[in-house]
Amino acid sequence: QVQLVESGGALVQPGGSLRLSCAASGFTLSGTWMHWVRQASGKGLEWVSTININDGTTYYADSVKGRWIISTDNAKDTLYLQMNSLKSDDAAVYYCAELFSGHWGKGTLVTVSS
Question: What is the mean pLDDT of each run of 10 residues along the chain (114 residues)?
Fold first, then answer.
């Protein structure tokens, strides 16, 4: 059974940092493209970042470029999102996804507030 389980969401002050994790089970991250997508309260889904695990190429939305880093630990089949310089606009539920097969996690909540 394929599962993606996110963790690491928390309440953080503006300017702070968090690292989100996404643990995969039932499949290996090797050879896939993995994504982070977020949904702020009352808004639609917003793509955040993608990594091509085949060659390590990464992609970022303009809103997070230069502040965040997507990475993987293939040995642990875990995807990460290092979020630095957090802003109030970053508050959302964050999902990891493997879109080719349509696998999504249930999300982890990030709240940015002083």
Answer: 96 98 91 95 97 96 98 94 98 96 96 95
